[in-house]
Amino acid sequence: MKHMHDTQHMPRPPARDWTVMAVMVLLAALVVASFASLPLKWRDFFTLDAVNSAAELLAGFAPPETATPFLVKTAWATLETMSMSALGTLLAVVAGLALALPASGRLGQTPRAAVRALLNVLRSIPELVWASILLIAAGLGPFGGTLALAAHTAGVLGRLFADALENAPPGPEATLRTNGASAAAAFLYATLPQTLPQMLSYTLYRWENNIRAAAILGVVGAGGLGQMLKYHLSLFQMQQAATVIIAMLVLVALVDAISYALRRALTR
Amino acid sequence: MPTPLLELRNLSKSYQGRPVLANLSWTFRAGEFVAIMGDSGVGKSTLLNLIAGLDAPDPASTSSIIIDGVPMAGLDDDAATRLRRSRMGFIFQAFHVLPHLTLLQNVALPLLLNGLPVARAAEMLDAVGLGGRGDDFPHQLSGGEMQRVAIARALVHRPALVLADEPTGNLDPDTAHGILELLHREIKSTGACAIMVTHSHIAAEMTDKILQLSKCGIQETTIVKPFEQ
Q1: Do residues A40 and A74 both lie within one domain?
Q2: Which residue of A93, B75, B128, B151 has the fewest C-beta atoms within 10 A of its own C-beta?
Q3: Nearest chain B Cα to A173, which residue?
């Protein structure tokens, strides 16, 4: 009887949400429509000819070029790619922090909305598009690439920094204001130190992304490893291209490892 | 009789037309430890905010708050900030100890803000029983220990007026008793006037005077003082 009593008083399960089902069906239909509308030649891709061509292409990469002058040139390009990503990220941190202050609502709701809209625009445009635009203005080479990385990353970091500032516990800053600290001092001594580890973590993560992006930007003429890769691939110099690709992999792995270690240390 | 430190005259405050405080008048003297009690929503915390200059009385009223002979109404935001910095100390229910600073740095903050030598911070930590733990961080402390740090921070710059909003509200009774004994001792040794808002009769009875705040105004109630017995 007791069991019966418990069952009678069990809470009713929540009503089934049919909108979730409808969204799932819609997504499935979109996936099917995507495959149907694109001319994906899967059958051609797995033919013997296609496999032979791919194998021939891959065989062309071996062995990678190891002549000293070429390795030196690749090392310089690696440094250029790393410098582009580091400088682009640094510029983005400065711009992102400056934009995050109004975007976090510290100067009122109107500046908050306006600056958030600007940040949306900055980060909605991919680095490659920024590079294509800025290379026209700044000319070919790493300067345009650096600016392209900075523009896109400023949009991303500005938004993340603003959210971090908005979500910081208000107690410490309010305490300092109550105790007679100026608004600037209260921000610098309370809110900024609280959010700094999170901001540094975001910055390092974006630097990781920017290393990869900087390598790609070179393809549109922004210097570094990407430009070398495009040059050698377009001349079908596959062994040189292989060396450049290996340099990219090593650089990305190295920066990922450093960034990961630093982020672990910061958020511990 | 000690000199008046804080005078409230005809203090009135409304929020969206709803009166919270109406024509409140009282004089607080140097060296007094006063508890303010009253029902929730009667305006206790509002009163502390008005005294601290964090909120302003109704503009149409004849309200005035005079601290050490200085009318708060004549002060702009910067001057009120300076007055709070130099003459007041604050203790909160939720402690509000800065999590990223060491205990010593937390206690030294009012000294730094006032441009005073920071050596007294270590003395104050010692006085609240946390000597030798200056390099610890707040997350290493219990609630009672954090409130000790907050008391040290509130008193380190020798303020004339200490405002405490439910300082023992988050503490167990034994810890609360210890904190109030400490607060009483430190206030008496510095000669400050302390105003403590509390719901706890036990806490209130450890002060020199209990004021009851109600819709009818403010009045003193008789108390037993077990602390001094």
Answers
A1: no
A2: B75
A3: B98
Q: Is residue A22 part of a domain?
A: yes
Beta-carbon count within 10 A of A182 CB: 15
Residues of B in contact with A176 (CB under 8 A): 98, 109
Does the beta carbon of A181 lie under 8 angstroms from any beta carbon of chain B?
yes
Between chain A and chain B, the number of residue pairs with CB atoms below 8 A apart is: 49
* Closest among B59, B117, B115, B53 to B80, alpha carbons compared: B53
Q: What is the pLDDT of residues A103-125, one digit of tens each?
A: 999 888 999 999 999 999 999 99
pLDDT tens for A7-40 read 566 777 777 778 888 999 999 999 999 888 888 7
Q: Same structural domain for residues A199 and A100? A: yes
Interface probe for A, chosen from B113, B114, B147, B165 (most Cβ of A below 10 Å), is: B113
**Cα–Cα distance, B141 to B154 (Å, whole number):** 18
Q: Are A28 and A107 members of one domain?
A: no
Q: Which two tokens stand for residue B85?
A: 């910095």
CB distance from A194 to chain B under 8 Å?
A: yes
Q: Are residues A15 and A117 in the same domain?
A: no
Q: Return the CATH number at A233.
A: 1.10.3720.10
User: pTM for this one?
Assistant: 0.73
Which chain B positions have a beta carbon within 8 Å of A179's beta carbon? 84-85, 88-90, 109-110, 113, 153
